[in-house]
Amino acid sequence: MKIEALDIRKYFGPVRANDGITLTVEPGSIHGLLGENGAGKTTLMKILTGFISADGGETRLDGRPVRFASPAESIRHGIGMLHQEPLDFPPLKVLDNLLLAFEDRLIPGRQQVRRVLEELCRRFNFSIDPDARVNTLTVGERQQLEILRLLALGAEVIILDEPTTGISAPQKVLLFATLRRLAKEEGKSVIFVSHKLEEVEELCDRVTVLRQGKVTGHIEAPFRAEQLVQLMFGQSLLRSDRSRVPLGEPALELQDVTVQTYRLTVSHMSLAVRAGEVIGLAGLEGSGQRLMLRACAGLQRPSSGRVRLQGDDFTRRSYRDFLAAGVAYLPAGRIEEGLIRGLTLTEHYVLTQRGHQPLFIDWVGAAEGMQHKIAEFNIRGQSGTPVEALSGGNQQRALLSLLPPVLKVLAMEHPTRGLDIESAMWVWEQLLERRKSGTAILFISADLDELMEHSDRIIVFSGGVMASPIDAAATSIEELGYLIGGVRDNS
Amino acid sequence: MLQRLSNLTLGLVPVVLALLFTTVILIIVGAPPGEAYRNILQGALESPDKWASVVTAMVPLLLCSAGLLVTFAAGLWNIGVEGQIVAGALLATWLALNLTLPPILFIPLLLVAGLIGGALWGLLAGLLRVYGGVHEIFGGVGLNFIAIVLTNYLIFGPWKPADGATMSGTDPFPPAAWLPRLGDLPVYPTAVVLALAAVALMYFALRGTTWGLKLKAIGKNQRSAFLMGIPTSRYMLGAFLVCGALAGLAGSIQAIGVRQRLIPGVSGGYGFLALLVVLLAGYRPLWVIPIALFFAAVGVGSPRLELSMQLDSALGGTLEGIIVLFVLLAQGVKRKA
After folding, report:
1. B-chain residues within 8 Å CB-CB of A343?
2. Residues of B with Cβ-Cβ distance to A337 under 8 angstroms
3. CA-closest candidate to residue A423, choices A467, A393, A464, A458
């Protein structure tokens, strides 16, 4: 099916998320949509799939204008979207997840759905157990399940939003093979949304580049990387050289810490993180790295062992004590756990002021303070902008701008997930700058390049076991990949 | 300006729809709608006495609404507000029946007793929510029920009048405990001042203080607020405490002012009605005042329907309920569009 977007416009207050975007995706092709964060990719895709409605413009399918009031309606017209976070029902079985897709039938035919699933799996070389519970699948397998669901619903256009985040290398190869097959052999239209140049180069037939809500170019394969970068950023980027800082005293120590939840136990963690040191935490999602990070910030109480901050025992102290001692925690869900939807940047500024807070708010002073932060951290938005109107990259900038000036320990989940290269580099500049004042940084990442490039030491988690830290300079991506995937990667 | 004007017009649409809807109901039951509305209006406004009654009915609405603004800001559905009124009335009654003091000390003491009684009852709902994991709606419903049963027990048990218990309540309080009226009119200046002050206080507290902003932060996203370092449990308990205190004050005023005794239905449904007031006001403090006035007027005027048209006075309540539903509907439709 041919899908056309004509002069699509969508404004969030003063932010022009989509400012007259036009693009055409031919059937049987893989069309890349490239752009930095806040360029308008996600907004455009949400409009095409009926999640939100456009303020202007038109969508056409095979030349006929269409208008969707809901995602359900768009899928009925054959447009399916694979979201960054899989939209499945984790506690249910694979089969039941698919059953939910067939909403029209009161009593769904399990056997029939099982046959459909098995046939689709054969066709695409997937190996998904119909009776497995979805929460036991890897992210890659959940993605495969989602693709199958869309196909079973009769999707002719498949949109994938940053699909390679969090999946293993072999799963990526399989995903790309699947997408090629869908386009070339089955004539589907595939829209591949990404900020990773090499993936777009490898996979796509045609690329549309967005910048600040506008189309900056349509290009046919083969692509030149410099040209794509130029269109994305309006300038070429240089990789920054990693500077070393002298390490200080231990800022954070874990002594034989065991953390237990009903799902997972991570035992006997011992580690000393020195001031100015950067520790990368690697591992497949749910391997224990998040529990460890939360224990370091006082968000997860250890069941045994000691947590020390600068030598003082903080094992039984509250999260607020950790905060007061100079620990900060930045979660992966920026708008879900970090910022507060519905409040403005200025209101966030007031809320995050440390130390004595006067009873009455000085709104003028707060707006000025936030204005300074906006300029300093290059946030695209105003002090009165509600945070949900900011793009993902700008939300991360806002979160960083609201951190206290001096920190002992900074714990972050996925510092650059979903960010484009420029924003990601900027974020790391900010983080590395903090080392100079003695901040120890611990971060979780699924991006091996990021782990290798920025960590002093890397700790690999696998099935609740924390391995000994390895020196980042003495390892390679291949070795790291092996350690992470190792025995558990069965795809 | 134009934007504001169109917002105002949009705000009127649901009210007009609600009136139309009620009119249809009136026609169905065979009553001339014009006459019914005129009766309600007349019933509320025909004499200074009625005016005074409207103002007096506003007092508990304003106090409870002021409290509910706080719990709503924190994202809490304090259905228990009704029981918190009762709890305030109970504590005030206990003191009023057992103490003898000059009015200058007695009345402030009884008002404070109302504040404390309501605050404790509110705190109970809060503790259940924060530490017991009992959703405040269910906790509130349970506590409301307990408060009512407790009132009946006290009226028919320990506090029953010397000449036998009846549904008309306890013995009247000693006159030293009576909240002073304005001359002969059934209106209580102290109560009116307190109620208006409560709304004003919450207006400023929610707008301009870090306390209010933190409550809002919790209400919008408790997880983020916690990670930011806001002590969410303490603030949520505080919200329950403040709301309970204001509701309890309303209860105390109902007991020592309007009734001068404890009666079984002392809360009079004002807590539930205040929930509607705040919903209708869209959680905006200043809108609470005119809406409470309207609700109070309908409440005072509706009994006239029964007297002069043999219609059930519940029609007034129906009108209020329908308006709220239409306003919420309009908001929902606007959000979806």
Report:
1. 216-217, 220
2. 221, 223-224, 227
3. A393
With an 8 Å Cβ cutoff, are B209 and A361 in contact? yes
CB contact under 8 A, A361 and B227: no
| pLDDT tens track for A321-354 | 999 999 999 998 888 889 999 999 999 999 998 7
Beta-sheet strands, E only, within A62-200 = 64-66, 79-82, 157-161, 189-194
Query: Is B325 contained in some domain?
Result: no
Residues of A in contact with B220 (CB under 8 A): 340-343
Instruction: Give the DSSP letter string of B53-102.
Output: HHHHHHHHHHHHHHHHHHHHHTT---TTHHHHHHHHHHHHHHHHHH----
Rg (Cα) of chain B, in Å, rounded? 21
**Cα–Cα nearest to B244, from B117, B110, B142, B336:** B117
Residues 211-250 of B with CB under 8 A from A: 211, 213-214, 216-217, 220-221, 223-231
Supply the CATH number for residue B214's domain.
1.10.3470
In a domain, B116, yes or no: yes
Q: Tell whether B283 is within 8 A of chain A (Cβ).
A: no
Distance CA B202, CA B73 (A): 11
Name every chain A residue with its beta carbon within 8 A of the beta carbon of B335.
none
How far apart are the CA of A357 and the nearest CA of chain B, in angstroms? 7
C-beta neighbour count of A44 within 10 angstroms: 28
| Dihedral class, residue B310 (left if φ above 0, else alpha if ψ from -120 to 50, else beta) | left
Nearest CA in chain A to B223: A337
State the residue range of the domain holding B205.
31-301
Considering only CA atoms, give the Rg of chain A: 24
Q: Which letter does DSSP use for residue A126 in this model?
A: -
- Chain A residue with minimum CA distance to B204: A360
Which of B83-102 are b and which e, b meaning 16 or more Cβ less than 10 Å from the residue's Cβ? bbbbbbbbbbbbbbbeeebe
Domain count of chain B?
1
Q: Which two tokens stand for residue A325?
A: 């001692």
Closest approach of chain B CAs to the CA of A354, in angstroms?
9
d(CA A302, CA A261): 10
Residues of chain B with pLDDT under 70: 1-11, 336-337
Residue of B nearest to A342 (CA): B220
Helix ranges restricted to H, A169-277 = 169-184, 197-203, 225-233
Q: Of the segments A55-59, A119-123, A219-223, B188-192, which one has the largest average pLDDT value?
A: B188-192
Residue B270 lies in a domain: yes
The full set of domains in chain A, from first to last, is: 3-233 (3.40.50.300), 250-485 (3.40.50.300)
What is the count of residue pairs from A and B with beta carbons less than 8 Å apart?
60
pLDDT tens, residue by residue, A298-318: 999 999 999 999 999 999 999
Of these ranges, A70-84, A230-244, B240-254, the one predicted with the greatest mean pLDDT is: B240-254
Rounded-to-10 torsion of CA A261, A265, A268, A274: -60
Give the confidence band of A107 by pLDDT, cuts at 50, 70, 90.
Answer: low
Which amino acid is residue B234, in one-letter code?
R
Lowest-pLDDT range, A110-114, A203-207, A392-396? A110-114
* Contact assessment for residue A431 and residue A423, using Cβ atoms and an 8 Å cutoff: no
Residue B163 belongs to some domain of the structure = yes
**Contact A220/B at CB under 8 A:** no
